Amino acid sequence: MRVLKVVGLDVDGRSIICEADSGDKFIMVVDDRLRAAVRGDRVGSSQTQIDVEVTTVLSPKDIQARIRAGASVEQVAAAAGAPLERVERFAHPVLLERSRAAELATAAHPILADGPSVLTLLETVTTSLVARGLDPDSTTWDAWRNEDGRWTVQLGWKAGRSDNVAHFRFTPGAHGGTVSAFDDAASELIDPDFARPLRAVPLAELDFTEPVAAPAPAPAPEPLSEPEPEPTVEAKKPARARKGKPAVPAWEDVLLGVRSSGQR
């Protein structure tokens, strides 16, 4: 059990404000049972001891303030010791407010070194995650309001088995407003000079639907044919006689009537 100390009365004068060692404040309703417990009265013959029920009660305003600051319904219910249904009833409109702020932040423009980016935060983050081989559709967005009234936007995504988060500061304004990186993870996501090559696909994972045809073998060279023998010349044509003076028959040929060609 947690020890509480009395701080004072509430403004309505019907409840007592108590404070725990952690600094959390609680409200105790003053009723007949509390008054009887303070007096030490005993009631009823069948009741040997007064059953004092101490219930930690948070006002609706306190519940909504904690939810708006980023706490979950379960965290508020556990810290206050209040029923979960009661916290959910007052937390629902604030959760819608947080969801709307996160949606508006995705349409804001990241602030870079040379001014606001042309792309929105959602477009920038999507491009950055795709470049890392991650699924941009599996991201989660959340937002909560800080003590200074500004919104903190949280982006969550998975990389393998690890859960990652990045935080931005969202300032609503004209043309969707602006967002600035709040941590190193957010700075890397919106850095226009940050680039990581896409992961190479291993060759073993490739699925070829058609086998690659092997190159056709080169045709075998044709055997060299033996050279045909040149035809032999059986007889050479007689060389043409040189033109000159006709031969002069001998004297005995003239007497015998024989021509120089050997014909009579």
| Biggest pleated sheet | 6 strands, mixed
H/E element string?
A: EEEHHHHEEHEEEEHH
Beta fraction: 15-25%
- What is the helix fraction of residues, given as a range? 25-40%
- Please provide the count of β strands: 9
- Report the C-alpha radius of gyration, rounded: 54 Å
Uncertain segments: 43-55, 197-212
Overall outline: elongated
Q: State mean pLDDT (0 to 100 scale).
A: 75
Order of strands, main sheet, comes to: 5-4-9-8-7-6
Structural class: alpha+beta
What is the tally of helical segments?
A: 7
Give the terminus-to-terminus CA distance.
Answer: 169 Å
Protein name: Septation protein SepH
InterPro entries: DUF3071, SepH-like
Organism: Mycolicibacterium arseniciresistens
Q: What attributes does this structure have?
A:
264 residues; alpha+beta; 9 strands; Septation protein SepH; SepH-like; DUF3071
What is the gist of this entry?
With 264 residues, this protein is of the alpha+beta class. The protein has helices spanning 32-39, 60-68, 73-80, 84-106, 121-131, 184-190, 251-256; strands spanning 4-9, 15-20, 25-29, 109-112, 115-116, 140-145, 151-159, 162-171, 178-181.
Protein described:
It is a single chain. By secondary structure, this protein is of the alpha+beta class. α2 runs parallel beside α4 and α3 runs antiparallel to α4. It starts with a strand and ends in an 8-residue tail after the last helix. Among the domains are: 57 residues, no CATH class; 86 residues, no CATH class. It is elongated. The chain contains 7 helices and 9 strands.
